[in-house]
Amino acid sequence: MKNITKEPIKVWEDVYQIGGAGISSFDDCSIYLVNAEPELVLIDSGTGESFDKLVENIRGLGLEPEKLSMIIVTHAHIDHIGSLAKLKEKFNSKILAHQLDVEKIESGEKVGAELYGVIYEPCQVDIKLSKDEESLQIGKYEFKLLHIPGHTPGSIACYLDISGKRVLFGQDVHGPYNLPGADPEKAKTSLQKLIDLHSDILCEGHYSIYQPKERVEEYILSYLREL
Ligand SMILES: [Zn+2]
Ligand SMILES: [Zn+2]
Predict the structure, then answer these.
(1) What does residue 95 show for φ and ψ, rounded to 5 degrees?
(2) Cα-to-centroid distance, 175 and ligand 2 (Å)
């Protein structure tokens, strides 16, 4: 596979980046894995082209992709949802998303597949969030899920506390907030919500992993100021 230059990254205890530019495919969002023993949880899934590489990367960490019980979908853009159908088919994983983005995931309309030159296989969502904040026990961790509309109407962030550090999967914190369906006013409130979590580590949707706390705040604030 071309442009694969990096190995998966260990972010923190039980948290890995297994996909993204350089790791799985240039077009993929950053894809994170949580080992919530005995289950595995994936945050987002890439464009779909890199499915085999994602599976290989999970095995390379000594983990079993068959244990992927849940895929948390941060929003309905193709670079985040492309492998959902395959993950569900192969590993019987449940798909979780906010209800305001469910229609796109299930229909495949306006997810941006044509922009990436891929064919999106629509996928049924099993768990549809509707509240501002919900929590879900998966394996040994409590996953907190926050509705953060702005980049898309049904964007969500996820965070969990592991061994004294708060790890935030903020995903597309950088936006853009000027696409069809985006709402910069709502994004202001959402980014402030993310700042108020005082996370120690931010796993961003494309750019990087930010830490410590001060850098996380500075990063999110830099996008809030632009709105
Ligand atoms: Zn993205
Ligand atoms: Zn996006």
Answers:
(1) -110, 130
(2) 7
The pTM (predicted TM-score) of the whole model is 0.97
Q: Structurally, how many domains does the chain consist of?
A: 1
In a domain, 2, yes or no: no
pLDDT of residue 4: 81
CA–centroid distance, 172 to ligand 1, in Å, is 5
Ligand 1 centroid distance, CA of 205 (Å): 6
In a domain, 74, yes or no: yes
Query: Which residues neighbour ligand 2 (ion) by CB within 5 Å?
Result: 77, 172
> What's the confidence (pLDDT) of residue 2?
59
Instruction: Please list all protein residues whose beta carbon sits less than 5 angstroms from ligand 1, which is an ion.
Output: 29, 172, 205
Domain around 136: 9-226
In the reported structure, the alpha carbon of residue 31 is separated from the centroid of ligand 2 by a whole-number distance in angstroms of 13
| Residue 137: both structure tokens together | 């026990």
